[in-house]
Amino acid sequence: MPGITLPPFPDDVPTVPLLVIDFELIKNGDVNEINRLWTAATELGFWYLKNHGAEEEADAMFETGAATMDLPLDEKMKFEQGDAGVSFGYKCAGGNAVDETGTPDAVEFINVSRDDALAWPATVHRTYPAPVEAHMDTAVRPFTLKSIEVSNVLLAALGDRLGLPDGTMAKAHKLDEHSGSETRCIKAAGGRELSPDKASLGAHTDFGSLSFLHNRLGGLQVFPPGSDGWKYVKPLPGHAICNLGDAMNIFSGGILRSNLHRVVPPPKEQAAYDRWSLVHFTRPGNSVVLEPMSAHSSMIAEAVAKAPAGKFNTGTTAGVWFSRRIQYQRLKNRTGPESWRASRGTEHQEVY
Ligand SMILES: O=C(O)CCC(=O)C(=O)O
Ligand SMILES: [Fe+2]
């Protein structure tokens, strides 16, 4: 965290070469850059984002996350997310499974609802540990607002390329509808005797639409389609990492990719250090039905026509989908391998 000099990311581990997308160019409608975004979004669903303008807000939010994680465990547990499929709040290390055998995860995190951050000092969903509430105005809301801006621009550009009418993506992600959108600060304690490929956060696809991720140490890995194994995403100073989640895969009839990823201990010398990461997850409004937007785009309708019948018809809303996934990854709700399966999204479509 602040003031600590971290060892460099090693140059002899397998990495995935993500495209670097310039947020300012996308915002200004640069056609070439939007084409590059489209390539990244359809081929891997992950890219680096530069010129996003959220570095200071991310730093402040990291500090709020660090102050929160410094609290005694029993204090943090007063704000636990609970077993009912609600994500907002604290999750202790070991609270979730990382695989179908019920191996516990090794990360703790605090999730702050976007609705709560925007409504503060009013409470929409719940209250938070003191450092979060103390920095709601100075860190949590500013980071949330920047993340919303970045997300809206990227989702609108993708919606346009999908042939959707203006405002279609915005309607699925309205600020005045409650949603699972949230800011998450994650800590994986360093220095543990762990094999480098033991997952601290199990293989998953993200639940929502767009994840805007900031990390300093390695450990994030993706499984590129058709690849021979997991590849690290090397953190690049000043660059965020963006990835698409299941909702965008479903809305687009599979044209946009929600790729499998996981977190393992940081590679080599970096493993001795605590790993921190920060994500803003943009998720559709709770009432939005997760199904292809075929009625609004012939490109999507054609993609759906080529896919097995009903493949993208989840028959459920974003709110229900999200809650199911949260609920069944919790070890307290585990009955057996079926619980893990009940926590899955579009992972089964992956080739790995
Ligand atoms: O910590 C990271 O780098 C990624 C975290 C992640 O994939 C998640 O929280 O969904
Ligand atoms: Fe993720």
Give an account of the 3D structure.
This is Clavaminate synthase-like protein. It comes from Artomyces pyxidatus. With 352 residues, this protein is α+β, with helices and mostly antiparallel strands. It has a single domain (20-347), classed as B-lactam Antibiotic, Isopenicillin N Synthase, Chain (Jelly Rolls, Sandwich), CATH 2.60.120. The protein contains twelve helices and twelve strands. The strands form two sheets. Strands 1-2-10-7-12-5-4-3 form an eight-stranded mixed sheet. The chain has a four-stranded antiparallel sheet with strand order 6-11-8-9, with no helix packed on it. A hairpin with an 8-residue loop joins strand 8 (220-222) and strand 9 (231-232). The mean pLDDT is 93. Fe (ii) ion is lined by residues 204, 206, 211, 261.
Q: Topology, please?
A:
Layout: E1 20-22, H1 23-27, H2 31-43, E2 46-50, H3 55-69, H4 73-77, E3 89-91, E4 108-113, H5 114-119, H6 130-134, H7 136-161, H8 168-172, E5 182-188, E6 201-204, E7 210-215, E8 220-222, E9 231-232, E10 240-244, H9 246-251, E11 261-263, E12 275-282, H10 298-306, H11 318-329, H12 337-342
Parallel strand pairs: 1-2
Antiparallel strand pairs: 2-10, 3-4, 4-5, 5-12, 6-11, 7-10, 7-12, 8-9, 8-11
The structure holds 2-oxoglutaric acid and fe (ii) ion.
